[in-house]
Design a protein that fits this description.
With 288 residues, the chain is mainly beta. The strands form three sheets. Strands 7-8-9-10-22-19-18-13-16 form a nine-stranded antiparallel β-sheet, with no helix packed on it. Strands 6, 11, 12, 14, 15, 17, 20 and 21 form an eight-stranded antiparallel β-sheet that branches. The structure holds 6-O-phosphono-beta-D-tagatofuranose.
Length: 288
């Protein structure tokens, strides 16, 4: 089912199936929780703000129309604008979905002088989450955009996890002056601050987060998203973030599906749709 309620002074929508649930704030159309068989898949910082126009630290910040620093504010404005509910729906086999809409307004045009309409659907399946982002150029001139689902995963401990599926891909290493390297490891592990954009990932390449200590895996697949970010702030960056605890970094990892290295160009009237799928699988019994 679908319920709308107030949570931390923000409007929140809750989707439920018999085996899964998902919570989304209208502020940023921000997915903050995804529970499957009693297990919370996402990390949320204890120190996150929950205020209009502020990004929530955790869950899935929706990064649009710009990734990272650049002409407009870092990671764009979609994650701190108020989205509206366009519809709720089911696509059969136990799914429950909700579609949010965002259009340009004075606030966005003041930051990014382009007319757009974005539709973002969050579809809760019995054991996985599906995200669909579609945007249309409603302007009279072309513009380009980047997009990323900046997902924070909850993990037992950063020492016990690795990421599979990235070997042989090139990546832009933000920790090394954005130089490009090639990933040689089958299992990508994290022992320091990591901030990398893996680029030109073949379609249908599953990226797998493996948490050995609780035998938990999360399989990620995307359509029309060519890049994937792996990020952990580690010690110093954690201290530099006011909305992130100094000792939280061992319990999270960001693996983000995005269109980053090559922004998409949209002509007037043109639309583009991007999809991302999050499949947890766990041998552990549901947490009581
Ligand atoms: O996705 C990684 C990254 O680009 C890092 O460079 C770090 O800045 C992170 O995003 C968080 O950015 P935020 O603006 O949410 O604090």
């Amino acid at each position: 089912g679908v319920t709308v309620c107030e949570d931390k002074n923000l409007i929140q929508v809750r989707l439920e199936t018999p085996t899964s649930s998902c919570s989304i704030y209208l502020n940023g159309a921000h997915v903050s929780s995804f529970i499957v068989n009693g297990v919370q898949q996402f990390f949320l910082s204890e120190k996150s703000a929950y205020e209009p126009k502020k990004a929530i630290r955790g869950g899935i910040p929706l990064i649009y129309p710009q990734f990272g620093p650049g002409n407009i504010q870092t990671h764009g404005f979609a994650r701190n604008m108020q989205w509206s509910i366009k519809s709720t729906f089911s696509e059969g086999n136990g799914t429950i979905g909700i579609k949010f809409e965002l259009k340009d307004d004075d606030y966005s045009r003041n930051i990014w002088p382009n007319s757009f309409r974005a539709l973002y659907s969050v579809i809760l399946h019995p054991a996985h989450l599906e995200l669909r982002f579609s945007n249309k150029n409603t302007d009279i001139k072309p513009w380009n955009y980047q997009l990323a689902f900046h997902t924070y995963y909850s993990i037992s401990n950063i020492q016990n996890v690795h990421v599979e599926g990235l070997s042989q891909y090139e990546f832009i290493d933000k920790m090394k002056k954005a130089q490009k390297f090639t990933e040689s490891r089958q299992n990508v592990t994290i022992q320091e601050e990591v901030d990398r954009v893996y680029v030109s990932i073949k379609p249908d390449t599953p990226i797998v987060l493996v948490d050995q200590s609780n035998q938990h895996k999360i399989i990620l697949k995307s359509e029309n998203l060519n890049d994937a970010v792996v990020w952990n702030p580690w010690v110093d960056k954690s201290k530099a973030m006011a909305d992130f605890g100094d000792l939280e970094y061992p319990n999270m990892i960001c693996i983000e599906a995005g269109q980053i290295e090559k922004p998409k160009l949209l002509s007037p009237g043109e639309k583009q749709c991007h999809k991302h799928f999050i499949f947890p699988s766990s041998k552990q019994s549901p947490s009581l």
